[in-house]
Structure formats: structure tokens, C-alpha cells
Design a protein that fits this description.
single chain; about 140 residues; mainly alpha
Length: about 140
């Protein structure tokens, strides 16, 4: 690609990702709706300021990472009962709910990808930062 184009400084990206990490911290004890709304408010402002920059790949990566963080947040707050409510067989919900794996490992596993789908997150109010970036850029 030839010519000049605008990029976001590495420090700014790090600060934003740290802020998202703080907003999705498992120890907050806040409702998921509050967490999703705080993410939306922060990312709207951030994309409003940096939306002119070329960062399509970065926004896709952050989107995947943020979905996993949210799945991890959900997993921390509920386990077996809600897996059964989402259609997982009882034996499988028991096995998956009592796993030794950490929250981050479970958030990236098929256990939560099949129950907490991207569509379910979107219905709940997940702010798709990749799509928001495309509309701003």
C-alpha cells in the first residue's frame, strides 16, 4: 500500500485495551447489562476520536478478544444451571460446570461458544466494535 495513512499510536491502543480489560474485570460484581453499556459508551467515544485511522484488522481482533472476555465474565457469574437453561444436556452441564480449567480457557472453548453465541450476545446488547468502526470509517 502506497502513500500516507493515519495510524493509532501504540500507547493509545494499549490504554484503550487496558480500559476494556478493566471494564470486563470478573471481580466487579455488576450486571452484564451495565458492563455491556459501559463498553458501548467507552468504545463510541474512542472510535469517535480514532475512527479516521486505519485499523480494520485491529478492530476485528479486539472484537474477538472482547467477546471472549464477556463470555469469561458470564461464566464467572453462572455455571451449570444456566448451561442447562441454554439447552445443554444435564450430564454435560455438570461436567462443564465443574471443570478445573480457568475462566479464560473456558471462555475460548466450545462449551461457551455453543451456548453463548455471538447472536445471543448481540441480542443482549453487545456493541460490535468492528461493525461500529466500519460505520465510522
Amino acid at each position: 500500500r502506497k502513500g500516507a495513512y493515519i495510524r493509532v499510536h501504540a500507547k493509545s491502543k494499549k490504554k484503550a485495551k487496558d480500559k476494556l480489560r478493566k471494564l470486563t474485570s470478573r471481580s466487579q460484581g455488576r450486571k452484564l447489562d451495565t458492563v455491556l453499556n459501559n463498553i458501548k459508551v467507552f468504545m463510541r467515544g474512542w472510535l469517535g476520536y480514532y475512527g479516521i485511522a486505519e485499523m480494520d484488522t485491529l478492530m476485528k481482533q479486539w472484537n474477538e478478544w472482547l467477546r471472549r472476555r464477556i463470555r469469561m465474565y458470564i461464566w464467572k457469574h453462572w455455571k451449570m444451571e444456566n448451561l442447562k437453561k441454554l439447552g445443554m444436556p444435564e450430564w454435560q452441564a455438570y461436567r462443564n460446570g465443574n471443570t478445573r480449567k480457568g475462566y479464560w480457557a473456558i471462555a475460548g472453548s466450545g462449551i461457551l461458544h455453543t451456548t453463548i453465541t455471538n447472536e445471543r450476545l448481540a441480542r443482549r446488547g453487545y456493541y460490535d466494535i468492528s461493525e461500529a468502526y466500519k460505520s465510522v470509517h
